[in-house]
Amino acid sequence: MSILPKCSVDNCTSSVSKAGFKLCLEHWRVENKKPKKEQEDEHKKSEADKPVTSTVLNSTQLGERLGIDAKKVNQVLAELGWIEKGKKGWLPTVQGKRLRAESHEYHKTGVPFVLWPDAIFTSRILKNAVSEFLGTKQQQPKDIIVEATAVKKEEKTVGFRDKFVASHRATDGHMVRSRGEMLVDNWLYFSRVAHAYERLLPVEEELYCDFYVPEGKVYIEYWGLDNDPKYIERKELKKEIYKKYALNLIELNNAQVDNLDDHLPKLLLKYGVVVD
């Protein structure tokens, strides 16, 4: 005959009433006389004491839910600046770690890979990037900053894109909004620096850069107006957002745009972009 364990209540020397139970008969009766609400509160407390676990996803699992393969997932995440290439495999960037990306290694090879919290799947930024990658994004660009500005609703009726129409054609075919932007675009094109114009930034605010250089994940802003209060306000708001997300930013003024050969090569070099 097996000996039953002692009651789990402190200082109680009685045995439990039945195998698999934790309480003796006396304490079981006391426990079951407690009001229902008190029992529920104790149950909630015990549940709260349990360790919190969350689902993590690798690139293959993330791709299955986004409808693209693992390789394309990593390309999109790298384009967003959330991961970067190691000597082998992938590593989370500072931005990726802010999104709770975890760095792991394959047991047999030591090659690093990244795991993502399940919540990353709900990211508007990621969904937009995947839509752009697949060519399924249809909405037209909105104002430069929608939610981030403190401009009154009635002042938004004439947006930046309405005020500054893209009427200047750069050599590579980009339609840009000023002579200064055209000079920057042409310089990048003739210097063989791959670039995008008015790319949506990987941030929660809806914000577009002037130019983006994917090689160094560099954003270029040309500040062309010095005497327009609303423009200056918008400029400062954009700079704060670049700083908030620790994005690589090159700022150009009118004097620098008139002498791009003297300025852009060394500014790009800071981010690993070499111009011959």
Topology overview:
Elements: H1 25-31, H2 36-48, E1 56-57, H3 59-66, H4 70-80, E2 83-85, E3 90-92, H5 94-98, E4 102-105, E5 112-117, H6 124-134, H7 160-163, E6 168-169, E7 175-176, H8 179-190, E8 196-197, E9 211-213, E10 218-222, H9 229-244, E11 248-252, H10 254-257, H11 260-269
Parallel strand pairs: 10-11
Antiparallel strand pairs: 1-5, 2-3, 4-5, 6-7, 8-9, 9-10
Report on this structure:
With 276 residues, this protein is of the alpha+beta class. The protein folds into 3 domains: 52 residues, no CATH class; 79 residues, Multidrug-efflux Transporter Regulator, Chain: A, Domain 2 (Orthogonal Bundle); 117 residues, VSR Endonuclease (Endonuclease, Chain A, 3-Layer(aba) Sandwich). The chain has 11 helices and 11 strands. The strands form 4 sheets. A 4-stranded mixed beta sheet has the order 8-9-10-11. Strands 1-5-4 form a 3-stranded antiparallel beta sheet. The protein has a two-stranded antiparallel sheet with strand order 2-3. The termini are far apart.
Keywords:
alpha+beta; Multidrug-efflux Transporter Regulator, Chain: A, Domain 2; Endonuclease, Chain A; three-stranded antiparallel β-sheet; 11 strands; elongated
CATH superfamily heading of the largest domain: VSR Endonuclease
CATH architecture of the largest domain: 3-Layer(aba) Sandwich
Total discrete domains? 3
Structural class call reads alpha+beta
Kindly estimate the percentage of residues that lie in beta strands according to DSSP.
5-15%
Q: Distance between termini?
A: 88 Å
Query: Any idea of the CATH class of the largest domain?
Result: Alpha Beta
Which consecutive residue ranges, at least 5 long each, have pLDDT under 50? 140-158
Order of SSEs, N→C?
A: HHEHHEEHEEHHEEHEEEHEHH
Rg over CA atoms: 29 Å
Query: What is the percent of helical residues?
Result: 25-40%
Strand order of the largest sheet: 8-9-10-11
- Biggest sheet overview: 4 strands, mixed
- Tell how many strands the DSSP assignment holds: 11
User: Could you name the CATH topology of the largest domain?
Assistant: Endonuclease, Chain A
User: So what's the overall shape?
Assistant: elongated
Mean pLDDT: 81
Please count the helical segments.
Answer: 11
